[in-house]
Amino acid sequence: MTPSTPPAPAGRESGAVLTESALLTMTGIVKEFPGVRALDGVDLDVRAGEVHCLLGQNGAGKSTLIRVLTGAHQPDAGTIRINGDEVQLNTPTAAIQRGIAAIYQELDLVPGLSVAENIFLGHEPARFGFSRRHEAAARAREILRGLGHGEIPVRREVGSLPAAGQQVVSMARALSRDARLIVMDEPSAVLDPEEVANLFRVIRGLTAQGVAVVYISHRLEEIREIGDRVTVLKDGATVATGLDARETPTKELIRLMTGRSIEYVFPPRAEILTTAPVVLEVTDLSRPGEFAGISFSVRAGEILGFAGLVGSGRSEVLETVYGARKPATGSVRVDGTALRPGWVQSAVKAGVGLAPEERKSQALLLDEAVYKNITVSSMQRFASGGFLNNHAERAAAVQLAESLDVRPPGVDQPVRNLSGGNQQKVVLARWLLRDCRVLLLDEPTRGVDVGARSEIYALVRKLAASGVAIVLVSSEVEEVLGLADRVVVLREGRAVHTGPAQEIDEHQVLDLVMEGSSV
Amino acid sequence: MSEAPSDTTASTQATVAPPTAQRAGGLLSTGAGRNLGLVLALVVLCIVGVATSGDTFATGPNVLTILRAAATIGVVSIGMTFVITGGGIDLSVGAMVALSSVWATTLATQQLATDYHWIFMVSTALLVGGACGLVNGLLIAYGKIVPFIATLAMLAAARGLAEIISDRRTQIVNNRSFVDLFGGSLIGVPTLVWIFVLVAAAGWVVLNRTTFGRRTFAVGGNTEAARLAGIKVQRHTVALYVLAGLCCGIAAVMLMARTTTGSSTHGQLYELDAIAAVVIGGTLLSGGRGTIVGTVFGVLIFTTLNNVFTLNNLSFSAQSVAKGVIIVIAVLLQQRLARRTTSS
Amino acid sequence: MSRSARTIAIAGLGVLALAACTSNTPEAENNNNAAPQGVSAGKNDEPGKKVKIGFSAPAADHGWMGAITKATQAEAKKYSDVELLVAEGTNDPNQQISQVETFINQKVDAIVLLPFDGPALTAVATKAMEAGITVVNVDREFNSPAAARTTILGDNYGMGVSAGTYVCSQLKDKKDSIVAEIAGIDSLGLTQDRSKGFKDALADCGLKVSNRVAAAFTVESGEKEAANLLQAAPKIDAIWNHDDDQGVGVMAAIKNSNRKEFFVVGGAGSANVMRDIKSGTSLVKATVIYPSTQGADGIRLARLLVQKKALGDLVEVEVPREIQLYAPVVTKDNVDQYLPTAFES
């Protein structure tokens, strides 16, 4: 492990940010969704003029917290105070009026409108309903200059600006509404190093004016460079707050992010015979800009886990194996037969199944009955001459649903009514019904509550035991290590480590994915 | 969800698992409930018809008149139901009807019919409709042109081609046995109505009882999920538009029998009438939910409305206003129901 | 030109019908010329047995068609013994057929039918006739004589002849004159007839149509096609425009082009155009009338047929099979005679 040595930012006065009064105080925020307690007691206090970093693994509740803060979700419990006054942020407009703005990863700009029009979207300077374009342009120019980006032409179409420029426009929009607190969700993810340096300059300019910034990033080195204080979230709750961004050791931060209050029960691993046949063999798979040179093989009964950050290419690898994306180079073989690249039907025919990351948008027909979702990939089996035998179809689905313990029972209800865990069981049942040889699982426990996770884990293990080769992708390192037999660690589209799961621990994996150093 | 599965749902639910109150309510709001609304609307229209001109409205011949008028646009609407359920739209149906009718009544085709059999006219109409649908489908599935634009282009091109072939003249059908068979009656019911009944029944079976229908729901409801589940989405999309084209070919045959002509002016605004009927029937314009029974009711409601207005000597614009109001009410109702199902 | 001969033969009838139209109230007309066996025209107007008439026409999507329907309804109101049922105007033969079927079910005595497409409505009209209903066919002809008891037609061929003859009279000295034609919907038989008449009449004086475009009887189509025509022909001596309703667009296009080297002959005879002719300042020097009172005449004839009355001023006891209306040329000299019955577009 390499202790990070943060570069001391030049010209930064640490004393200048210490306005001790809290601009924003969130206390005991709770937010529940059906089946999931996304936030379970979050505390956060942000001071004027500071950069407050929010750290946490995927699913720790960062996104939900931002949504609560920007008025998109209403908390079920807890209080929000701004400058000491308790406030209700019932709508995004209410949040904006309180001076809270957010800049999302997918920038919410209108590409066809000009820079100035985007900055004043929704509150255009106008008189008698006629927009005053000159005034808007002048004010936009002024704001951009204040951000140190006076060179951005205010009449240019936003869509033609590079990502960094668009981000500046987003910030200018926040400032045009007199935002006093700006939330930035992984702003550096779309930027190259030079642009990141620029971004930091802008952020420092903002804080110098007394604006508070809540900064979210997975890159620890960035947090050390730009951040003042750190709050760590885990499992929807604050585990540490007010940590010094530069002094707190990396090891401590990782411990805070991963140390669990709830221990998941992972089923015991089975003995993988080295004589078991290789079912899935992937050679030199690459897609420019996503991943390169990925090779691995999975034996019957084996679970191979992929660990890596968002953007490391883990889901893309899985979807390419499945044929949903077409590789630039490389081949995928199932039982020795090469699949036609970029052709889902070829994979399905060969016995490959995919439980995709976005279960609702990529796997399920939400308004259709459970049984139809289970049989959708094996309809031919229940059809003669194109006519479906509903009884056989339902009977098969009922049997599977019962053996997987899908709750509430009843295969005729729309899948929409089920919780995340039970929806995932339905997706697994779909591929069980096909007797598939290879199962690709992308984030199998995303949005699945704690109780149902163990069931999914047991189910995956049972599937492997029946001889299926399984590839697992998860942003939760613990899950990959607990469930998989072997682990591949991805960083920026390349495999930086491959080895048995028992020989590596969570800290080492996190270190690998974040810092890229070798074990 | 279509009417059929919910029916079976209601019956099987009782045996498999006791339905919770909430679930039963949800079902009512999705399938049977909406059809109930349509039945109610039709009943109200009929009551108005009987009350205002009962001596004519409630007679057998008038009912047959309504059904005959509904048959042609009804067949087109069945095809449209498939396309919309599958997540698409077809603006070219009227033009395809015109082109099919013109092509099937050219001198050459009619000569074949005279020399051999009228089946040549029928098969020409079906082939032309199917071919137009094939072009639509290929452009949309493989050319990646959005359905609205692709079928808009077909709308213009097919009617233009119809005008070129017919030289913008009305072509008269000379084949007596063709006109007598399709324009006549079978057991007291017009052949046209029989055709409509057959097409609707076949459409219902295909949509609700076959793998093709199931795939249509899957492709329209969640294209990405369907693709990742191994469904040949592109091929299926093509098939849906071919089906719509075939329905237009059938409608062309019916129109040829009814008017004894083929003309490039046939089928004007059928796309709007068909979409309106499909939408008030309860098929979601965004796809994934479709109902043949609803569409049939939609067609019957508009045709009956027409009939009641004609009988009562209420002319012109009032009827269009009524149509517009019905469409808006139906869509509002649909949105509220959709919202209720998603929030539950 | 056998057709012309027939035109002339029927022209007299047309004038009669027109004269009948111009009289404002039935009572105002009191004709004492009693026919030997027939009934006098005056007696024809006396209330007789109740007559229920169904009327169906294409969608009133342009001035002339709107005028047809208005005139028809106004005519029916004049008779206490006529009950008129008007169906929604439609351009869908399927729907128009079902309207006629509805009339049959309602057991009307007569149907006045202006079909969107003559041949397409022939079968159902025949069915109505077989059911004992008197069908009066207006403007667009059926393709079977069994489909209607009487047919009232505008003289489309004659319209073309009248327009062509007028153009000839103006350009007779210049054999190299450029004559342009802006036709209506080409798929309609009536447009084809008009164009043929125009061509034939021009040929008689050695002229021909140099440029021809087809519009769609609407203002915007008239504007578009006229603009195209003016682009295509740098010099024009005369333009015949088939329809005064699309003529509004045609005149707009001419105005935009700032061209004045030609004169325009209109068609159908809208009040607007006649006022222009009267003023003498417009490029429109003449128009050819296509009576918009055909539907109204249809009501009168249907009533006579059902009440078994003869047409006044004819010796014959039965109403004739076919009545073709005359297509006179309106110029500044005679415009006052026609302005009162012209339709407002």
Automatic annotation (TrEMBL), chain A:
Name of the protein this chain belongs to: Sugar ABC transporter ATP-binding protein
Domain of life where this protein originates: Bacteria
Gene3D superfamilies in alphabetical order: P-loop containing nucleotide triphosphate hydrolases
UniProt xrefs under InterPro entries: AAA+_ATPase, ABC_carbohydrate_import_ATPase, ABC_transporter-like_ATP-bd, ABC_transporter-like_CS, P-loop_NTPase
Pfam name, any one: ABC_tran
Domain ABC transporter: 24-260, 273-517
SMART domains recorded: AAA
Native organism: Kribbella albertanoniae
Record flagged with keyword Transport: yes
Keyword annotations: ATP-binding, Cell membrane, Membrane, Nucleotide-binding, Repeat, Translocase, Transport
Localization terms from the record: Cell membrane
GO molecular function, one term: ATP binding
Its membrane topology: Peripheral membrane protein
Cellular component, GO, one term: plasma membrane
TrEMBL record, chain B:
Superkingdom: Bacteria
Membrane-crossing residue ranges in chain numbering: 36-54, 66-85, 91-109, 116-139, 145-166, 178-207, 238-257, 269-302, 314-333
Alphabetized InterPro entries for the sequence: ABC_transp_permease
Location within or outside the cell: Cell membrane
GO CC entries: plasma membrane
Keywords, in A-Z order: Cell membrane, Membrane, Transmembrane, Transmembrane helix
Pfam families linked: BPD_transp_2 (PF02653)
CDD domains documented for this protein: TM_PBP1_transp_AraH_like
Record membrane topology: Multi-pass membrane protein
GO molecular function: transmembrane transporter activity
Listed name of the protein: ABC transporter permease
Species of the source: Kribbella albertanoniae
UniProtKB/TrEMBL annotation, chain C:
An annotated GO cellular component: cell envelope
Keyword terms of this UniProt record: Signal
Pfam family, one: Peripla_BP_4
Region (Disordered): 27-47
Signal peptide: 1-28
SUPFAM superfamilies: Periplasmic binding protein-like I
Subcellular location per the Swiss-Prot or TrEMBL entry: Cell envelope
Gene Ontology MF terms: carbohydrate binding
Domain Periplasmic binding protein: 53-309
Name of this protein: Sugar ABC transporter substrate-binding protein
Organism: Kribbella albertanoniae
